[in-house]
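Q: Can someone sanity-check these two? First one:
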Amino acid sequence: MEPVKAETLPTTEASQHLKQSISEEQEHTLWEKVTEGISHFFHTASGRFRTHSTTAGANNIILAAHDDNTLLTRLTARTGIDLGLGNGRNRDSGPVRLLGIEYPSCADQGFQDDFKSRVWITYRNGYPPIKPSTYTSDVGWGCMLRSGQMMLANAFLFHELGRDWRLTRCQDDKGAWDKYVTILNRFLDTPSAPFSIHRIALLGKQFDKNIGEWFGPSTISHVLKVLLDDHKDIDMGIYVATDGVMYLDDINNECTKGHEGWRGTLILVPIRLGVEGLNPVYFDALKACFSLPQCVGIAGGRPNSSLFFIGVEGNHLVYLDPHFLRPAVEVKHPASYAPEDLSTYHCETVRTMSMEAVDPSLVLGFYCSSKQDLKSFCEQAVNISHGRTPLFTIQEKAPEFQDRDGDVLSDGDDF
């Protein structure tokens, strides 16, 4: 599918409403939501969704699942609308694991608070052009770039605020609020933000990706590493595994690079777990990843349908979907932001996808806060591989004959 520039998108009454305040956006009419779904459906290749239950709990978290159905039900699932069509799967919500924490169900209050605290980054429009191109929106090509942003942003939450941080308590703690706003500011859609869509797209040119081209798992991993290594003010390391193998000597070097002591590090593992689809032999190991406290998510998918997976319920993965078009958030002084200004960076609709529908091209993300945490991660990674086909391997150091400075492949490599 050819990238769709923002200038070619039809102007509708709904798109004008998107430019109004966040509080008004939360009260979309049915027509606005369906229009948003149409925008998603025609600009991505992943529109096979339907709702499978009504709202769960007092906070109106809505469950949606991936399946074949009519255009109308696909649109309503994407927008989180329940039209009462009676075509849901009606499966009960069972135990769910979200980034290392287990909850009784998706209706559990603890799960809802945790889920809504994860950073959700989607398509945006109306931002400054990504020069030298004229793109002012990433609809149709930016989903993996947005998934990569989500991976890094949620790792920053772990690193700077801790796994127990919750958005609902953040406003009462000025120190935590300021850190939270600082994290989101790094991803605003402006050339000055260190991890903006602008910088990611431009850096992709070093990996044979033109502005407006989709990234694969390996490319986004290496682009994020280059950007984070270049941003010296952030005291967090990043390591990208080679061919599904983690080398502990390289990780240790990354964790201590330029420091007397240890620093928290994000470990990215680009992998391919099948040919056309996700090989079932990897199902159990992939689900087990979400039981690891170091897990910060899994990004992946085929072109134009990348998703960011953050949990598992039975044989379904819980995900955040970047394929929603929102207006770019206004850039202003960090102290000027109110909660409603940043509300579109959090999702209240729980969506799940059958593991059979997951694309095999993925990047796994793990955050290790200390040397002891890395040791614990390695031990648990070995344990979850017992009796299962492992997703990756861990070795002390790379073979001496390996060219450690070899070129990074571009997406031929993305798999």
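And here is the second, same format, sequence then tokens:
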Amino acid sequence: MPFGMFVGVSNHFESVIFAGVFLTNEKEENFRWAFKQFVAMMGGKPPVTILTDQARAIGNAVMAELPNATHRWCKWHVLKRAHELLGVVYRNHKTFADDFHKLVNHMLTIQEFEDAWNFVTYTKLIDDRESCDAEAERKNKQKILKVHFGYPMEKHASVIYTPKVYNLFKKELIKSTSYLVLPSHEEHTFVVKHVQAESRELWSKVIYKIKVDESIGYYTCECGLDEHFGVLCSHVLAIFVNRGVCKIPDCHIMKRWTKQARSSTFSNKLEKYIGDTNEESRSFRHQLLYFAAINIVNEAEIDPDAFAIAKSNFTRCKKELQEHRLSKTTTCQVGYGSMPEDEVSTHSGVQLEGNEVSESCVQIVDTTKNITIPVSSILAPAIMKRNGRPSNKRYMSSMEANIKKKKRGKKPDPKSKQAGGVMGVVQSRFCSKCRSPTHTIKDCPQLYLP
């Protein structure tokens, strides 16, 4: 039987149990009966605010029996459900939980939440895709692909294609071993047939025609895989092996699948777009700098001299950026003394009383904004009481906590398990009835004496 509880909060912010109820099921009419009986127990006074889970039956019952009460969903249940649905996001993005809880706790209107949510999700998506793409680009430059058959054409593909595209090419090359090249009576036409054509399904196509434009070396197959995806099909590769083709023709190499896909510079359209676009957007500035840096890296990796030029300029640029950031940062000084009353103000811009600054005291002085804050006015943050049962553990310093943590990780000394520890006195065991050290009360012979 489902069991429900009516729980409130006292003036001490402690949980108070008002009532409990057993229900035969979780239907709307049972919840309506429970709310009606609860109001009767409370002397006919309905609750002003009620928090429940997201069950539709409870919501309908609240609207029917407590029409004047403010009904809200319990945040704990909402976040629990969100964690169940977004578990993969929580696990893969360590900062998502903090960002999401900040949205839930600090956004006051629906529009604020929607705008913040769109910004967080878009930023996470961009960062995730850029990190994956950068990792693939790094592996593309470092990984050496291994060929399967050792054909010159296969070695050429391993040099020009990225690892994932080469794997697709290799699958088609492996499938090409299942096709035989047959003679054709048509000019500039080849025919390939599957070696197990008789045992394949009746609806399966086993014979393909490939036409060749000898002037440019372009092969057109009936399957249309090259036109559709940009990777040569197994039928054309079977002809390449048969004809002894050593390199993939340039007309069949799609640049977007090659390792040099990012070798091109900015287009004129992008430069014009940059001039007409508001560059206050952080994501736009990020993308602009990202592609500019990629182009510099591609140009600088050609030879050692180009690398040295790029490295020196990177160092100079980093130094200038650090100086710029320091100039934007508030500089503060700590010292003794006092300042004139008309020059002293708090960080919020409110002027302090004269008797507060007339005395010589330690002060924090912001030289850029001419702001002085007495150190004595800075108070420690208030200790907030945590929800739930208070802990009976005392607060330990960081040094003591580290010492206990190290001791917990070590294997226990067999001597320390003995009574009294390593250096302590070994305590003797004795019978609590006859005080004999040779046995305990369980084995005491006096227990059985008449």
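A (reply): Looked at the second one. The two ends are 56 Å apart (CA to CA). Residues 152-257 form one domain.
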